[in-house]
Amino acid sequence: SFVLYCSFVGVDFYLNTRPAVVFERWLGFAPPAHVQDLKSSLWILGDSGRVSLSCTTTEETFDRIIKRGMERMPDVGRSQHYHRRFSEHFGTESEDVYFNASTGRLRYSWAGTD
Predict the structure, then answer these.
(1) What is the Cα–Cα distance from 42 to 108, expressed in whole angstroms?
(2) Alpha carbon of 90 to those of 24, 34, 49: distances in Å?
(3) How far is residue 75's CA from residue 32's CA, in Å, rounded to a whole number?
(4) Total-model pTM
(5) Share in percent of the chain as helix, strand, coil (round to 5)
(6) How far apart are the C-alpha atoms of 102 and 59, rounded to whole Å?
(7) What is the pLDDT of residue 2?
(8) Is the pLDDT of residue 8 over 70?
(9) Which conformational region is residue 48 in: left (phi greater than 0), alpha (psi within -120 to 50 degrees), or beta?
(10) What is the mean pLDDT of the segment spanning 21-38?
């Protein structure tokens, strides 16, 4: 029964950390067909967690992401920077989105702590 439990936990972890699943869970919609080179990492343990996501996409997808109440911050190089601080699942959560319109490269990061 222990081996079966460990197998279930492993399969569940794998299914929930695939880049398309991370994109949908953290950004609120499935990645559109035009999204390319989608990569993600997810780490949540105890009182803290981090998620990062990167891809190449369109300005329409970028606009859809930042409409979730994100605030414009000073640009970083050629990338637009948006930020949001909130508290839904952890005591303090923040997310940042960087988008380079000339290359279509988008980077998203989330961090949460209690």
Answers:
(1) 12
(2) 19, 32, 9
(3) 25
(4) 0.81
(5) 30, 45, 25
(6) 10
(7) 59
(8) no
(9) beta
(10) 92
